[in-house]
Amino acid sequence: MLSSSTALVLAVLMVAANAFFVASEFAIVKIRPTRVKELVNRGGRRAWVLASLTRHLDSFLSANQFGITLASLALGWLGEPAFARLLEPHLGFLGRWAGVTEHSIALGISLAVISFIHVVLAELVPKALALQRTETVALWTAVPMQAFHLLTYPFTWMLTATANLFLRLFGLRPASGAEMLHSSDELRLVLQHVDLDHNARRLIDRVFDYTHRVARHVMTLRRDVVVLEEGRPFDENVRLATVNQYTR
Question: Measured between alpha carbons, how far is 103 from 11 in angstroms, rounded to an integer?
Answer without folding.
Answer: 20
